[in-house]
Amino acid sequence: IEKILAEREKTHGDFRIHAAITDAIKFDMQQSSNWSTLGSMKREALDMIAHKIGRILAGNPNVKDHWDDIAGYAKLVSRELK
Questions:
Q1: By CB atoms within 10 Å of each CB, which of 9, 31, 43, 44 scores lowest?
Q2: Are 50 and 25 in contact (CB under 8 A)?
Q3: With 90 as the cut, is the pLDDT of residue 21 above it?
Q4: In the prediction, which pLDDT does 75 show?
């Protein structure tokens, strides 16, 4: 586990910093007037996007996977919209 955590810290950053950034983003999203009107899929996609933004800001912003994941979560919601 320690080896995995050390490897992840290189791309994801210090988890304390990442958690603080992500928590702040999620708090602000949940305070918006539209949050309660969103379905579970939209809320979870936004939570995961916030999580990926936290990794970008706390860790290595040049990891392509972070950006691809954001696009992927947005696309999952987009496919459901008519």
A1: 31
A2: yes
A3: yes
A4: 98
